[in-house]
Amino acid sequence: MKATEVPEIAGAYLFEPTPYADERGFFCRTFDADVVRSVGLDPDAFVQDSLSRSVRGVLRGLHLRSGAGEAKLVRCSYGRIFDVVVDLRPDSPTYLGRAFFELSDETQVTLYIPAGCAHGFQALTETADTSYRIDRPHDPAEDVTIAFDDPELAIPWPLPVTSMSQRDREAPSLAEVLKQREK
């Protein structure tokens, strides 16, 4: 497994496994504490794993947490997703930077998203399972959502949106969220 920095988002990494393939299929390690530690992250900091299943066109996000934020490892364990990260850390050298990825079950690449970054994705296949490993227990009172179609972000979502949560549909603009964070 190797770790690669994401230039558009300071502190973000892609963890790329080394699959071992044969006539049965493949095997790969999707988490390696030593590799995580090698880039300065604490592998023991992750305390909760979650899984979402989405159908083609479903959009989830853009989400982040207020307060201390939430760092996470994200991987598409089945299917393919278009994954988006937006850096909303005012002191970051990549503040307001955006990065786009296609994560899939074929590569099993894991994306590390630092606390303070917004995250969202769209399912590209009929079924897409997305695994999350987060560094603190979820508290719904800290949930923040940003409009997926905010023109300031101009995210090139690859498919028409077939479904999204009510919360995501009614999300405020990036400018409104940033204004609220200043208070």
Structural overview:
With 183 residues, the protein is mainly β. The chain is 10% helix and 39% strand. The chain is built from 3 helices and 13 strands, in the order E-E-E-E-H-E-E-E-E-E-E-E-E-E-H-H. The chain has helices at 33-38, 166-169, 174-182, and strands at residues 2-5, 13-16, 20-22, 25-27, 48-54, 59-65, 72-78, 80-87, 98-104, 110-113, 117-123, 128-134, 143-145. The strands form 3 sheets. The chain has a 6-stranded antiparallel sheet, with no helix packed on it. The protein has a 5-stranded antiparallel sheet with strand order 9-8-11-6-13, with no helix packed on it. A two-stranded antiparallel sheet has the order 3-4. Strand 1 and strand 2 form a beta hairpin. It is globular and about 55 Å long. The model has no long low-confidence stretch (mean pLDDT 95). Its EC number is 5.1.3.13. It comes from Streptomyces flaveus. Catalyzes the epimerization of the C3' and C5'positions of dTDP-6-deoxy-D-xylo-4-hexulose, forming dTDP-6-deoxy-L-lyxo-4-hexulose.
Residue share in β-strands: 35-45%
**Strand neighbour order, sheet with most strands:** 1-2-10-7-12-5
Alpha carbon gap, first and last residue: 42 Å
Give the radius of gyration.
16 Å
Helix/strand order = EEEEHEEEEEEEEEHH
Shape, per Cα inertia axes: globular
- Unreliably modeled segments: none
Number of E-type strands? 13
Largest sheet properties:
6 strands, antiparallel
Total helices: the number is: 3
Helix content estimate: 10-25%
- If you average the pLDDT, what whole number results? 95
In terms of structural class, how would the helical and strand content be classed? mainly beta
